[in-house]
Amino acid sequence: MANTRITQGVIKPNEDYDVRHINATGIVTAASVDVTNNLSVGGVLTYEDVTNVDSIGVITARSGVDVDDFISVGSNIHLGNAGVITATSFSGSGANLTGIDATALKDPAGNVKVQAQASGAMHTGFSTMQNLRVTGVATFGSGSTTIDNNVVNVGTALTLGHTQGLQFHTQNLHSQGFEVNQINASGIITASKFVGDGSDLLNLPAGLGTALSSTQSSPLNKIYYTNSVLGIDNNTTIDVPASASAAYTQYTDINIASGADLIISDGDDLIPDVLGLRPDGTFGGGALGRMRVDKLVGKDANSAVNVEKGLVISGVTTAETFNVTGNLSIGGTITYEDVTNVDSIGVVTARNGINVPSGNVTVSSGAFIGDGSQLTGVSGFSTALSNTEGTLQNLIFKTPEAFTIGAGTSISIESDNTSGNTAFTRLGRINVSTGATFHVSAGTTFVMNVLNVF
User: Which of 129, 159, 179 marks a domain boundary?
Assistant: First the structure.
């Protein structure tokens, strides 16, 4: 088709024209432009109020590109040095963006708040977070850490809080003091006052009693008690310094266990019950103490005990060998049982009798005193109403009136020529039980009620 040249006139509407070139110095307005081949623009192609731009090349905007919805770019958007892209949000990778300081976060004034470092990030200022989880190590610098009106729980064991202080399991550290099961310290613990049981404390001044109350204002704090028995379970030696006069204890009884030794060094004294608290005497003086031992021996375990000032025995004393080289003064009664030999130049008093298997009992001087009812071979017609010499009752006598021969018992009476074949009794009557026999031998004269008092 040949080109049509229009120099003057009017192009009619609703008709198509094939044109080789259009040179326009003004504005060309078209409802749509359809270019089937190339569109070559030697200058600048300016278009305004364009709804869609579909470009496979570069789009250069004079004063910006305003997008109401979105821009779909197949490859890249290149902006000149003066170009700016403004949007309410950007989506996608920003890995190739330049001019961004990725090592720090700043506030609007340009102050760095978070700075990336080789060891992590350094934060300056205050941060408010709903939840903070640290899976590694959290380190706080030289400044202060404030937790306002909240509780910090470290697992189930440790609690930090404003009201309860520091709580580890059931142990508390708060403004009212410690509530701790045990404190192990290798250094020095200093306090204005210690309260509680001090029985296991070492190197304390000696105390003779324990107050009934630890409250200073209570009268019971000035009233004391002490235990009665001091047990010694192991070998113990008492050796006081030369500057001391004696060793003493407030315990009223000292109990030495079997197999243990209590050794008192030469020249030393041990005073038990120094406060005199035993209930069987007056208070004070330390004279009422008691030691309970199984055996007393010398310090070398082989020698005898030397009792310099005497020995007072208020109970029963049992001795295998009793050797007195000097005088033995006994103010009361000396009692001995199962004694093989008694060599006495004084009076021997027997509680249950003196059993002499063989031989005789010889009294060189003095007399036997006591109940002689069990003595055999002693004749007597009566018994004094009193054993007290010099009293009337000692001179008034009594004798049994009758004697009964029990059933099954057989009694035979026989005298001899030296006695004139006569036997007699003070009894006024002899009762012979059924089944018993009483026989007076032939030639023997038996006289009853010889005292003639019945």
Answer: 179
